[in-house]
Inverse folding.
């Protein structure tokens, strides 16, 4: 199989997802100890929605990011196709 | 806590980091065969001074938060080796 090269926006989109996911992790940890901080919860929900949209955009173009039902699949079955995360 | 200037530009962060770094002078014996270490440093990161994190703390913008490794400038504490930096 020809060595497929990835377009630039593959990396841009992936980095944006990574940025949002990191912020969500931080907010999640914060909310664990501050359960009634409404501002943080609103921020968490907006970032969750944004991250979901970005992931959907990414998956429509580049295939599933996750398996076991956390991502829709393309046809043919593709979640185990390269590039894997360490190859990106 | 007031003199604890929280600024998140790269170099100022190092200045801030020094202010949370503490040191002590270990005893050096007269017949110590090795070159004595005169000053030893230890880190006291910001979370030691913070206690329970107050709500509504200032946040880094997300791209910077990813680079700096934390969402909260108050807890940002990059390490610079005191023994190497001149």
């Amino acid at each position: 199989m020809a060595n497929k090269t990835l377009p630039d926006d593959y990396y841009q989109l992936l980095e944006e997802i990574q940025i949002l996911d990191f912020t969500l992790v931080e907010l999640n940890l914060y909310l664990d100890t501050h359960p009634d901080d409404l501002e943080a919860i609103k921020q968490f929900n907006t970032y969750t929605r944004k991250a979901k949209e970005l992931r959907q955009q990414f998956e429509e173009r580049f295939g599933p990011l996750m398996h076991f039902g956390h991502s829709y699949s393309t046809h043919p079955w593709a979640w185990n196709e390269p590039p894997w995360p360490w190859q990106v | 806590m007031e003199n604890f200037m929280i600024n998140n530009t790269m170099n100022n962060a190092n200045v801030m980091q020094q202010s949370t770094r503490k040191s002590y002078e270990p005893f050096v014996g007269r017949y110590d065969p090795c070159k004595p270490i005169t000053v030893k440093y230890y880190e006291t990161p910001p979370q030691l001074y913070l206690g329970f994190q107050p709500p509504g703390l200032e946040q880094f913008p997300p791209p910077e938060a990813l680079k700096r490794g934390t969402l909260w400038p108050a807890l940002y504490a990059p390490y610079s080796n005191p023994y190497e930096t001149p």
About this structure: Residues 10-19 of chain B form the longest helix (10 residues).
